Amino acid sequence: MQLVIKNLSKTYPNGKQALHNVSLTIGTGMFGLLGQNGAGKSTLMRTIATLQDADSGSIFLEGIDVLKQPQEIRKILGYLPQDFGVYQNVSAEEMLDHIADMKGIGIRSERTSAVADLLKRVNLYDVRKKKLGSYSGGMKQRFGIAQALLGNPKLIIVDEPTAGLDPLERNRFYNLLSEIGENTIVILSTHIVEDVSTLCNDMAIIGNGEVLKAGKPAGIENELRGQLWEKEISKPDLQAYLQRGLQVISNRFHAGRLIITVLSDIAPDETFTPKTPSLEDAYFRLLSHNPLTHKNMPAHV
Ligand code: ADP
């Protein structure tokens, strides 16, 4: 099973082009869509989820034309949107039962057992009678994934699911996502590199509405092998390194010390040590190549 996106473009009425000729082929397993805020991730996710139209291009899942047959795709879609609001005064159990009903699980006994299974899976069974309004952020996210998983969807879209979760909740969420069957397409959109490196076997990096890179995380990292050098410096010296013309792709504090990573075919000088590339390096390198995104680079001080 493959989701094939071809030349998808979208410009909002205010003139902002959010997607520009996006083409991606997404197979089963976890696919990470990585990009900064404003890169176009939600626009792409909402378009795949049939919640908004594109101006041009196509999306096909097997024989289904997603843009022209939204009803067909909705039958096999699970979606956890970025701004997932919950009804405050309803319990998780009641709400899931209602959503299951809307998703077409009409037989009451089937619904009850599907809901109970999911509540156990997302570890909310013990609090199933509590009102959703009393849930913590992590519990709400887990409830969100439960509703997305109802009815055994073949395509699951989760938009920025770990933003705002504490490390423990994030870890729980990772575990939950990693248990989703291998025969399902799961698209995870995020601005957090760790989400992708932890979970995804395939990925794309998107910036300014364009696909900057697509492939396997390990392959994308490997492209930088032998080209990265790092050095601990003092903060006031940073400007001097930049003025030397070195391509500093990131500078970050580690245990209170500033470490710069430089892209170069050879060691800039003998004070630099070779660095094994990480996905974060590859991401920062792409952003530093893209002048529009560079100014927002998260690691820059
Ligand atoms: P991301 O999910 O990566 O943060 P979005 O898809 O939400 O990115 O947004 C991409 C760009 O489109 C941003 O510049 C955003 O401000 C703009 N945008 C998003 N939604 C709308 C809208 N409804 N009308 C106008 N501009 C929008």
Ligands bound, unique: adenosine-5'-diphosphate
What proportion of the residues form beta strands (DSSP E)? 25-35%
**Silhouette:** globular
CATH architecture of the largest domain: 3-Layer(aba) Sandwich
Count of DSSP-assigned helices: 11
Mean pLDDT: 90
Instruction: Summarize the amount of helix as a percent range.
Output: 25-40%
Return the CATH topology of the largest domain. Rossmann fold
Strand order of the largest sheet: 6-7-8-3-9-10
How much is the radius of gyration in Å? Answer: 22 Å
Q: Spans of 5+ residues with little confidence (pLDDT < 50)?
A: 293-301
What's the CATH superfamily of the largest domain, by name? P-loop containing nucleotide triphosphate hydrolases
Q: Total strand count, please?
A: 14
Highest-level CATH class of the largest domain: Alpha Beta
Count of domains: 2
Main β sheet profile: 6 strands, mixed
Give the termini separation: 43 Å
How are helices and strands ordered from N to C? Answer: EEEHEEHEHHHEHEHEEHEHEEEHH
Structural class: alpha/beta
